[in-house]
Structure prediction request, 259 residues.
Amino acid sequence: SGQGGADCITLFDHGQINWSTGQVVARGRAAPKGNKESDMESVPGSARANANGHIIGILKQIRIYDDLLVGQYASGNDVILAGIEKTARDAKTVRQTYTSALDVEILIETSIFGGFLQLVLPDHIRQIPKLSLETPLASKAPMGEISHTGLILDARGLEIEPALYPVIISEQGDEIYSSVFVSREFAVQYGVCAYSCDMGTAMANRRIGSHPLVVKGLRKSGKEDTSIIISMTDAKKMEKVSQRHDFLKECRVIIVKDP
Prediction:
């Protein structure tokens, strides 16, 4: 990755997901069927179709939450399946090369943000009424209180798997960050959270502003559960932050995990 390992990447046989940038890439390949010119001409299209198939396969393996994968969520839903296929068709060609044997290799790229998230983010992340987005985040803190601009959850050591819709809860089981707090508009455009595999890079990320609150993940909620538990102390610390409704609504959250 471009940032010296700061990006969180999941590798697949024919491509990868970058959970820090939302970028998904897939490779495709095709060989000429025979020696006629028409055989040669069809190869780039076949390579592209091969790459499209691979990018659909990768998108379907993305975890939404718990053990629910996009492929399961979409199965039997023609609208979502058609949308995933459209995401693949709209993916842009990054590179196309010919090998010495006149095989074509192609690399295509799409993003999980925007249209794809609109398809697969569960309906319970609803549109909440627009609060005025014009007011800067900094102006909300009472006198003498530090104004927090975002949240960093340090989940290093917990071996978490990235998910599109992670939930943060307290030891008592209260939801600290979940669909209740999130504006769907922001979630679709930027993701419910971003993932980083380096604390320094996370701290410098514009997403969480100049003064993020940092809390520590204690443990995962369970084997198939993507909720992350924070301590009672950290949960109380969050409650005291009056601007949390603003920055949580705008998904100004980064989860730092192990590379």
